[in-house]
Write a structure and sequence with these properties.
heterodimer; A: mainly alpha; two-stranded antiparallel ribbon; 17 helices; 56% helix; B: mainly alpha; 2 helices; 0% strand; elongated
Chain lengths: 303, 45
């Protein structure tokens, strides 16, 4: 299972970054440029900066902030609002209602990067519960409220991308600044801030796997809200479960799986399913969501 | 209760997703920003 997941993550990473021509052109010409792909209409289910030279798709969190900026601006100017943002919100909630944070575990490019960085130490220290709420504050404040309330009429302000996102610094900032002399001359306090945030997260990731997913990711915070109501869920067979907590020890998100299988933190990597010695954990469609079952029970009651 | 919430969220998500594609301008709303370098995102600005 672990190898299949890694292969899928690498495959998705390659699909989302397949503009190799633009990547090498950027290096060869030593000039920052981004892909002009028509696939940039499409949001991907993961955190990945579209300013990366090889990225061919759009980051839903970046696109959402730009849209909210745009809505606020057009509302003030009394202009017609572009409904493209409905697509982003619909896409995010549709993927959430299907599998909760499933895409964090199987698709997200930044999730893969964190797992690869953590392979250096293979440590996984749990954060205090209070830190886990930080990602909800980041989501509501930096992705929703600030882009809606404070914006520059001439220059849009994607607050999360601008002040926090370590994925943007890693995938786009560092490569573009490294090759483009012009960009190197424009470094500011913002570069220092974003590099410090990136280095801090890399240090945290070395001690706690997927540290950014646990405490900082707004996408994970949003999808986590769907974990308890999603179509696919983790199920514990309590007659088989011996409460040995092997699942909890293996869990990279530090969840006590047999007690809280559909915790908001669960990224559905399915390592717990794999490690369970009694096969008590399964990942399947929630039986309670079927209307047929209710009808069947009612018929049995009548009989 | 969970079943009701699930079906409400599912139908709302499908509605938003489709109405965004049909009535929204994805080229202007999403792609136009994504094909230019976001200097703030990369830490310049």
């Amino acid at each position: 299972m672990k190898k299949i997941r890694l292969k899928l993550q690498l495959l998705f990473f390659a699909i989302f970054n397949h503009d190799i021509v633009n990547f090498f052109r950027t290096i060869y010409e030593k000039k920052a440029r981004v892909s002009q792909s028509h696939l940039k209409n499409i949001c991907i289910p993961g955190l990945h900066c579209y300013s990366c030279p090889s990225a061919v798709t759009s980051c839903p969190i970046g696109a959402l902030q730009f849209w909210l900026n745009d809505v606020a601006m057009k509302f003030q100017l009394k202009e017609k609002i572009n409904l493209a943002g409905f697509y982003i919100i619909g896409f995010l909630s549709l993927s959430g209602i299907i599998g909760g944070r499933f895409f964090c575990g199987w698709v997200c490019p930044f999730g893969l990067t964190q797992e690869l960085i953590n392979k250096i130490t293979r440590k996984n220290i749990a954060f205090h519960k209070l830190f886990l709420y930080l990602k909800y504050i980041i989501f509501s404040l930096f992705v929703i409220i600030l882009p809606l309330l404070i914006y520059d009429i001439a220059l849009l302000s994607p607050w999360f991308c601008k002040y926090i996102c370590p994925a943007g610094t890693l995938y786009a900032g560092i490569p573009l600044i490294a090759v483009d002399e012009g960009l190197r001359q424009s470094l500011s306090y913002l570069t220092l801030l974003k590099t410090t945030i990136l280095i801090s997260f890399i240090i945290l990731i070395l001690f706690s796997n997927r540290a950014f997913c646990k405490i900082g990711c707004p996408l994970g915070a949003f999808w986590g809200l769907f974990n308890k109501i999603s179509l696919f869920k983790l199920h514990i067979n309590h007659t088989k479960c011996t409460s040995c907590n092997l699942c909890g020890k293996k869990c990279m998100m530090n969840i006590t799986v047999f007690q809280n299988p559909n915790s908001n933190e669960c990224i559905r990597c399915l390592e717990c399913v794999n490690v369970c010695p009694t096969n008590a954990i399964s990942f399947k469609i929630d039986d309670n969501l079927s209307f047929n079952k209710t009808k069947l029970i009612n018929k049995e009651d009548k009989i | 209760m969970k079943k009701i919430v699930f079906y409400i969220v599912l139908s709302l998500s499908i509605f938003l997703f489709l109405s965004g594609i049909i009535f929204g301008n994805l080229d202007e709303g999403i792609r136009s920003k994504a094909i230019t370098i976001c200097f703030e995102c990369i830490g310049i600005g």
